UniProtKB/TrEMBL annotation:
InterPro entries: CBS_dom (IPR000644), CBS_dom_sf (IPR046342). Residues 101-157, 175-239 form the CBS domain. Keywords: CBS domain. This is CBS domain protein. It comes from Halobacillus halophilus (strain ATCC 35676 / DSM 2266 / JCM 20832 / KCTC 3685 / LMG 17431 / NBRC 102448 / NCIMB 2269) (Sporosarcina halophila). It holds the Pfam family CBS.
Amino acid sequence: MNDLVERFEVAFNQIHQHLKEFNGYPKNDNFVELLQRSKLKHSVIRVHFDLLKQYAKLRNALVHERIRDDYYIATPHLEVVESLEHIKQTLDQPPEALEFATHPVIFFKDTSLLTEIMTAFDQQGVSQFPIYSKDNEFLGLLTNDGIVRWIARSVDNNVVNLAGVTAKDVLQDGLNPSIEFLSSHGTVYELEERFERSLEEERKLKAVILTESGKANDAPLGIVTTWDLIKVDRRNEDE
């Protein structure tokens, strides 16, 4: 029985350490307070929030209501210990962001005709394409919404002339959405933090593009939108 208590306390303390790290090691390191803050940032905490709050109560009973050194007023069941250890393991070894990204990434050059890109929107069923220069410099993300707004601005006598219009022409219209880059080896926590920070800054982050080095001008290996983050929640729920 004491072995289960020890395993429980070890896993709990390691999770507590992760929570401190997630929140920049604040002065107030109360477990439940850190849990509350962390659930806004990380899906694994959000999914297991209620469970971890209950485990915190059990931990308090183990630590503060011990009758004597070798006798506890409450002890965890094996399934509780294993559940806590599983959460700890997920925090120790978070999945890579690339697991939740759309890949491979279809992209176009700035000289690509708009009609070609519009055809790809229809055929591929996606809503955005990265645009690069001939020197592989990232220029922006061309979205279907951006194209619609460009067309609305370009109507002349109820006619829009698309002849010769390129991706560069649309991007130059100032409709570039906010994009960030992350290494393809980055964790899902780093990915979630990018979107969370954009919310805090009241800046709508359209997507995070994953490259080998995390630099903008490397080849795109994956692209993640807010819709893709739903996959993270679902995976954690399934586990």
